[in-house]
Predict the 3D structure of the following.
Amino acid sequence: MIDSEADALTELTLQQQRDSIQFYELLLDEIDRAAICERADIPSDVVTMGSHVKFFDEKTGAERAVHLVYPGDADISAGRISILTPVGAGLIGLSVGQSINWPDRGGAQHRLTIIAVQQPERIARNA
């Protein structure tokens, strides 16, 4: 996880924690377990804030493509999901080929597997 993102996500999580204690505890646990690095040290296939991510949900059999954003930029109809959603929190820090078991808002477990990651700076260069 990128150093500045870890600080921002911790602050966001603590601000929102009272709304859903269990979910935010999971996110804080993920931040605590993360190796904290500078952006330049993060491999391009690792999900970070702003990444465009394609993943497979084994429970539903669905493949989804999303853009991971902060809450103020979220728009599910445009494929922009907030880091403060269960799926967004589950994806951050994973790399292509990795999977995680993560609960949805109803508490059902999903196994999410990363298929592809594209970083924002690489998208801008390819445009």
